[in-house]
Amino acid sequence: MDCSNTQPASAPAAIIKGNNSALNNPNSISFSPATSGNNRRCLAIANFLNNTVAIYSVDCTNAQSTPQLITVLDATTSMINGPQVVVFAPFDPVTNTSCLAVFNLRDTPGTITIYSIDCTTSLASPPAPIINIPTSIMEGVASNFRSLAFSQLNTITGSACLAVSNATDGANTSVFIYSINCRNPQATSLTPTTVIDAETGQLTGLPVSLAFSPLTANGTSCLAVANSNSLEPNNSTVTIYTIDCSTPSSASPAPFVVLDNAISGINNAVSVAFSTSGCLAVANAGASGTGSDSTVTLYALECGQPSGPLAPSATLNSTSGINVTAFQRGIDFSPNGCLAVSNLNNVTIYKINSDCTTQTNPALPVVTLDGSSITNPANLSYSVDNCLAVINTNGQQPGVVIFRSTQQIPITPTLAVDTSNCPTITFSGTTDPNVSVTIFSANSSPIASTQSDSNGNFSVSSQLANGTYSFTAQASNATNCMSALSSEVTVQINCQPTPTVTPLPINKKFSCLARAILNKYCRN
Questions:
Q1: What is the count of structural domains for the chain?
Q2: Is residue 181 domain-shared with residue 263, that is, in the same domain?
Q3: pLDDT less than 50: residues of the chain
Q4: pLDDT at site 408
Q5: Dist CA 460 CA 68 (whole Å)
Q6: For the chain, first and last CA: distance in Å?
Q7: pLDDT score at 205
Q8: Nearest-CA neighbor of 62 among 412, 397, 334?
Q9: Do 98 and 33 touch, CB atoms closer than 8 A?
Q10: Hey, which bits of 323-452 come out as E strands?
Q11: Where does 113-239 have alpha helices with state H?
Q12: How far is 227 from 240, CA to CA, in rounded Å?
């Protein structure tokens, strides 16, 4: 994993502004996983104030693409009712769709509504849920800190585990585990297959954040639960369980690992996230909850292997730029191991090694997102192609800010046009090495295509009729990431036709006389 090769640009690629018809006071976001044969990803945004969930299609591979609104889940058809959290399930290659789960808690008890979303198609009307799960979850002191998490998909059955936090004071604190099958919604039970309770599950605080690890070889997952305890931050823990939601269990599982304060450095845990290699990151808001003593701790976890509390493999602290609070607590891993952290006034991104260590101790961010685009970040989410979406709750650009990776998109080509060998026109320039380059005319019609060499140089020729043309060039790499279009080059092609020599008609008598003189005879 080389996080440094996919650092996001410090300037946003797109901003979905708040206070419009589709976006108002966003409080949770989630990118969909990969889609089949398409570069567009769905970005779901929960809007609690206007009681909707807006879903946008975002192309992270095209520098010129803008987010497109696909649909808005509403209260009438979609049964949205105070959306607190949104999360996408893994992409199902059989149906070419992804499940979207929405936790609703405007009226109690809450509900979980689940939708089948095709990120490549705009919908004429809001979809109805394919699954509607009533819960016993009531509104409590941690109503704004609910969490949902999907496990990886069982590609044979089409099912995935969905964990739901019930962050309520007292003995009712629990985590519900459901087995969700969007491929066959009728096969989904509306009752949890497993309930992690406060006593056996050792939930020492409010379970405000959940995360599933990648699937193990035997098809199970680890579930990490951040148990926040702002009153007694030293008693806050992260409890980790082995979960197989395909097998119902009448008893609460006990954690196989408990990360504590004394050994593990847990200090009011408020958020958890797993990397694709199984590293666990925990955001700790600290005793004050204001960020002054906050940390992010990393752990190399053996899923399903019981052990005592683990010491962190690395700790990010104030020297690293960490300033996590109970509200600025978003953390997420990119597919290649970048770790993004929401702080009080910025987002910091770190390179995490596959063994869950950092290059330096303490680690320093590879990039910091701040200034006019980020002033008060909350939740954030990475796409499978390293787009980072951040909810910005204040400042000059409130709404959702999207950053693309600068290294993933090829360099914008330079373009020169040579008309000296008319009618053969030669296009040349430079871009990234070994990428495809396409030449377009003003009406976006492709004129020619070629491959850049190992130095990034390219040259290709085409024959064109006389006229005035405006040309641009665009580069694309092996993962179909496309650069911005080059600067436009306008040329006048006015090839002069080559003179045609027409032989004079031959007079037969004159020709015969000429031959007679030369050959001294002439035959009729």
A1: 2
A2: yes
A3: 1-2, 141-142, 521-522, 524
A4: 62
A5: 34
A6: 91
A7: 86
A8: 412
A9: yes
A10: 331-333, 338-342, 347-351, 367-369, 377-382, 388-392, 399-403, 416-418, 424-430, 436-440, 446-451
A11: none
A12: 11
What does the DSSP 8-state code read for residue 67? Answer: -
Please give the helix or strand (H or E) that residue 514 lies within, else none.
Answer: helix 508-519
Q: pLDDT tens digits, residue range 410-445? A: 778 999 999 988 889 999 999 989 999 999 987 667
CATH of the domain at 519: 2.60.40.10
384, 403, 422 — which closes off a domain? 403
Task: Let me know if 411 is exposed, middle or buried by CB neighbors in 10 A (0-12, 13-18, 19+).
Answer: middle
Q: Beginning with the edge strand found earlier in the chain, give each strand of the sheet holding 131-134 in spatial order.
A: 83-88, 98-104, 111-117, 131-134
Report d(CA 328, CA 339) in Å as an integer.
Answer: 15
CATH number at residue 171: 2.130.10.10
Letter for the amino acid at 478?
A
Closest C-alpha among 440, 431, 424 to residue 476: 431
Type and span of the H or E element at 508: helix 508-519
Looking at residue 485, what is its pLDDT?
Answer: 80
Q: Give the pLDDT of residue 130.
A: 97
User: What per-residue confidence (pLDDT) applies to 335?
Assistant: 80
Mean pLDDT of the chain: 84
CA 489 to chain centre: 34
Distance between CA atoms of residues 18 and 20, nearest Å: 6
- Domain match, 376 and 419 both: no
Tell me the C-alpha distance between 322 and 209, whole Å.
19
Q: In the structure encoding, which two tokens stand for residue 385, read together?
A: 């192609």
DSSP class of 509: H
Last residue of a domain, one of 403, 423, 455: 403
The answer to whether residues 457 and 434 belong to one domain is yes
Residues 6 or more apart in contact with residue 420 via CB below 8 angstroms:
none
Q: Is residue 158 located within the same domain as residue 307?
A: yes
Task: Give me the amino acid identity at 19.
Answer: N
161 and 280 share one domain? yes
**Lateral strand order in the sheet of 457-463:** 416-418, 424-430, 457-463
Task: Give the other-Cβ count within 10 Å of 116's Cβ.
Answer: 18
Q: Within this chain, do residues 213 and 362 fall inside the same structural domain, yes or no?
A: yes
Omega within 30 of 0 (cis) for the link into 423: yes
What confidence score (pLDDT) does residue 509 get?
53
Range of the domain at 517: 410-524
What is the residue type of 141?
V
Amino acid code (one letter) for 316 = L
Instruction: Determine the Cα–Cα distance for residues 416 and 298; give it in Å rounded to an integer.
Output: 50
**Residues belonging to the chain:** 524
Q: pLDDT at position 150, please? A: 95
CB 164 within 8 A of CB 178: yes
